[in-house]
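look at this:
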Amino acid sequence: MPRPILATIHTPALRHNLERARRAAVDAQVWAVVKANAYGHGIERVFEGLYAADGFAFIDLAEAERVRKLGWRGPLLLLEGVFEPRDLELCSRLGIWHAVHCDQQIDWLAAHKTQAPHRVFLKMNSGMNRLGFTPERFRAAWARLDALPQVDEISVMTHFSDADGPKGIAAQLAAFDEATRDLPGERCICNSAALLRYPDMPATERGDWVRAGIMLYGGAPDYPERSAADWGLLPTMTLSTRVIGVQQLQPGDSVGYGSTFVAERPMRIGVVACGYADGYPRHCGTGTPVLVDGQRSRLVGRVSMDMITVDLTDLPGAGFGSEVTMWGRAGNGAVLPIDEVAQAAGTVGYELMCALAPRVPVQTEAGD
């Protein structure tokens, strides 16, 4: 039989989280962000759950092709724009809208031969200092695009650097508003953090499109200040496995490589079929939470390539074959938030989702 580790993608949870984004977006249209293979979930696996979105956003043209092959005929947005001139040919053929964030992309558009003008999203660098035109150069870039016959409609967009923290969005929003004042076209402004944390934002500032990313996959954009449950979000990925061995420890006995954990009392230790080769973070140390048969326990010792050891001492009913939930929803309905596990590893839930290893079997949970 196959090794007892499994990732489950929860379609009903995807639908729920998308509806949560819609309620937060009020009258704006919602991009379902499916970059990084839908945050590690798999584009084909999330498509049914996110089909009610107004459009799909990504960074890779191959991802756009996959969405079109699934039968999607609505808007697609290339968030970082094209990477070379010939990418524009595929944008023309598949009807892909794309970001424009630098002069080179405008030059490529000016030289592009197409019968169908492109819909572009001109990006402003309002303070993130990654991609985009500065506020001082933004209107000149807009004028260049507006003069091109290769360009149809121009939308404007920006990306907040601190929507999830105390610095907030006020300064970036003010810069964006000032530089785009009186410019026509739709606006694309809010990410998950801004959408959830600023519910009273006027519709004119929220924009015509919002980009729902991490919230669709059941992660809180501002954990640990707020949890996914605080935001009314459900986990969309469960990583589960089973206990494949049990050891009895006496005081002074150690566990695993480096003997980093030493028992101070008699203990029962469960050996679990999961390791860093499955995408579970090696940096998770003793105390990282797990669920055993839906009850909270903890990891002890080091994470190795294929195995993890967990504490069964206070779970007398647990043993060989017990279900172990590394993150997500256990069989009894208990939930271990992926953000909590990520915090123990010194990272964020995004990384754990995206790091799921190819060797882990994945199933999709259907349902209403």
Observations:
- The two ends are 31 Å apart (CA to CA).
- The longest helix spans residues 11-25.
